[in-house]
């Protein structure tokens, strides 16, 4: 039986940092590539599907409150159980891999261009390994210290750049028809639907999740995507923003406080690594729980070794970005929908499996 060691507040902090990294970092260059100036409209149009998805997850979470989804998966026929565990594990490992790999590209481009990847990424992965090994209680405790600063820095860059934003660059829209709008909605849902991660932490919760707190958290995650996306277009223009690897973090390079304080982009390092750290740690923690109800040092060690090797191996950024754009995001949307229906079917199993 898993220990109930965290409260819903802890879970919300984890969700905002992890999914926030998805919608704030990975998602922006994707949707700007697919939808250009229409990207902000696509995000707004995805709000209704997101709210419906959030309500569906909340209702499913209520069905799973007295059940342990890891035990439920293990209770299936061994072949089916192992197939599901491998499928889920591959996705979470790939999520951690893409997070680390993108972090490497970003750091190399901006701060560590003379530092070998192994010297920058291995210590970071080692910290994530330690956090995953210590468990969800430790990861959630760390998130409580990280998130307030991440939010404060976000407000600073958002408000500080108001003077250089030209919102007229958001228009006109639908210059190329509606195809780009709908493609953008698909990519938006592929990132927002990641809030389904919440269900994997239900077995660890001491108290129930309340709809009156979960929906505002979902709206905050939505704003973490829309706000910086609109700002990027208003500051750089849709065409220029679509060429950037991380439009949200290019905004830091423009920020100045008065006439004498510039180059505040070093603060973005804290923001980036906070989200990446939580995202990698919880992804690998979930993998370890799929194969063991206890903290299994051998499973974690193996998957982290594989992660480290994969991250260090060279991969051209253009090819890597094409993989994320054409494969990872579309597959993510399918994966989230599949996972929802899988957990819905498992919730129908009789008995109090905890």
Would you kindly provide a written description of the structure presented here, covering whatever features stand out?
The protein has a single domain (8-343), classed as Up-down Bundle (Amino acid/polyamine transporter I). Helix content is 73%, strand content 0%. Helix 1 runs parallel beside helix 9 (211-236). By secondary structure, it is mostly helical.
Short structural summary:
This protein has 354 residues and is mostly helical. The protein has 14 helices and no strands.
Furnish the topology, listing elements before pairings.
Elements: H1 8-35, H2 39-45, H3 47-63, H4 69-74, H5 78-110, H6 117-134, H7 136-160, H8 179-192, H9 211-236, H10 238-241, H11 247-254, H12 267-291, H13 297-312, H14 317-347
Helix pairs in contact: 1-7, 1-8, 1-9, 1-12, 2-8, 2-9, 3-9, 5-6, 5-12, 5-13, 5-14, 6-12, 6-13, 7-12, 8-14, 9-11, 12-13
Strand content: under 5%
| Total DSSP helices | 14
Provide the CATH architecture. Up-down Bundle
Helix-and-strand structural type? mainly alpha
Overall mean pLDDT: 92
Q: SSE order, as H and E? A: HHHHHHHHHHHHHH
Number of domains: 1
The tally of strands reads: 0
The CATH topology comes to: Amino acid/polyamine transporter I
**CATH homologous superfamily title:** Amino acid/polyamine transporter I
Which sheet architecture does the biggest sheet show? Answer: none
Distance between the termini: 6 Å
What is the radius of gyration?
A: 20 Å
Instruction: List low-pLDDT spans.
Output: none
| Backbone shape | globular
CATH class: Mainly Alpha
């Amino acid at each position: 039986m898993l220990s109930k060691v965290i409260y819903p507040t802890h879970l919300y902090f984890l969700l905002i940092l992890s999914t926030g990294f998805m919608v704030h970092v990975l998602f922006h260059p994707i949707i700007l590539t697919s939808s250009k100036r229409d990207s902000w409209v696509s995000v707004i149009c995805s709000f209704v599907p997101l709210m419906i998805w959030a309500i569906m997850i909340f209702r499913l979470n209520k069905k799973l409150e007295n059940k342990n989804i890891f035990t439920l998966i293990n209770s299936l026929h061994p072949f089916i159980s192992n197939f599901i565990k491998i499928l889920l594990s591959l996705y979470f490992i790939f999520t951690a891999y893409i997070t680390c790999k993108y972090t490497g590209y970003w750091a190399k481009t901006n701060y560590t261009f003379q530092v070998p990847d192994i010297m920058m990424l291995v210590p970071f992965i080692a910290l994530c390994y330690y956090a995953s090994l210590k468990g969800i209680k430790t990861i959630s405790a760390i998130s409580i210290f990280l998130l307030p600063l991440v939010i404060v820095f976000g407000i600073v860059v958002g408000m500080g750049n108001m003077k250089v934003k030209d919102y007229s660059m958001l228009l006109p829209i639908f210059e190329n028809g509606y195809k780009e709008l709908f493609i953008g909605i698909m990519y938006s849902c592929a990132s927002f639907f990641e809030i389904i991660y919440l269900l994997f932490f239900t077995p660890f919760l001491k108290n129930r999740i309340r709809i009156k707190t979960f929906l505002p958290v979902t709206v905050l995650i939505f704003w973490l995507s829309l706000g910086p996306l609109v700002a990027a277009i208003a500051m750089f223009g849709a065409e220029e923003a679509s060429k950037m690897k991380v439009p949200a973090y290019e905004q830091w390079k423009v920020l100045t406080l008065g006439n004498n304080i510039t180059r505040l982009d070093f603060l973005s390092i804290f923001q980036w690594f906070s989200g990446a750290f939580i995202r990698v740690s919880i992804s690998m923690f979930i993998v370890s729980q799929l194969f063991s109800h206890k903290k299994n040092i051998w499973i974690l060690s193996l998957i982290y070794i594989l992660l480290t090797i994969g991250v260090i191996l060279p991969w051209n950024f253009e090819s890597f970005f094409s993989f994320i754009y054409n494969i990872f995001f579309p597959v993510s949307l399918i994966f989230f929908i599949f996972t929802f229906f899988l957990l819905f079917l498992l919730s129908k199993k009789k008995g109090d499996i905890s």
